[in-house]
């Protein structure tokens, strides 16, 4: 019997299950021979080597990616820590500088307040002291009383046995200037010149 295309088609129409099993079997045989099912055609050994190489390459790539991720995370943690440390250091330095500035301003204010309160009294004391010095060092009246010479032995031995009384002088301030100084000092101390 000669098989032609029309007789094959008519047989396939009459036996669809047998035809399906035959096509399925031929497909499996083709896969087996190409090495995709782990056998036949010498492709199995090369497929296994290829699978092993691709598997090791895959795991090497995964390992490299994990290491790179770990390194990136370590760098990010280190950068975050150094940034936090720098911010903390800067905040501490700023707080110390503000404290010093505040205490310096408080000290300056206290010094200025004390100087303002003491200024009138210092001026009064300076004026009174200047007036007193002016009264004592101003034109003065000097009174000199003369000395005398007394000899115990007359003659040639007289100069050896004689005593001399030195002149004395008394210096006093001018009474008019002393009165003016006392009057001005009384004015300053009376409260008429009271600076508050």
Task: Report what the structure shows.
By secondary structure, this protein is mainly alpha-helical. Helices cover 71% and strands 9% of the residues. The chain has helices at residues 5-14, 16-34, 43-137, 175-189, and strands at residues 140-145, 149-151, 162-164, 168-173.
Give a concise summary:
This protein is mainly alpha-helical and about 200 residues long.
Low-confidence region ranges = none
The Rg value, from CA coordinates, equals 64 Å
> Can you count the beta strands?
4
- On the 0-100 scale, what is the average pLDDT? 75
* Percent of residues in helices: over 70%
Structural class: mainly alpha
The N- to C-terminal Cα distance equals 145 Å
How much of the sequence lies in strands comes to 5-15%
For the biggest sheet, the summary is:
2 strands, antiparallel
SSE order, as H and E?
HHHEEEEH
- Widest sheet, order of strands: 1-4
Outline type? rod-shaped
Number of helices: 4
Summary keywords:
4 helices; rod-shaped; 196 residues; two-stranded antiparallel sheet; mainly alpha
Topology:
Layout: H1 5-14, H2 16-34, H3 43-137, E1 140-145, E2 149-151, E3 162-164, E4 168-173, H4 175-189
Antiparallel strand pairs: 1-4, 2-3
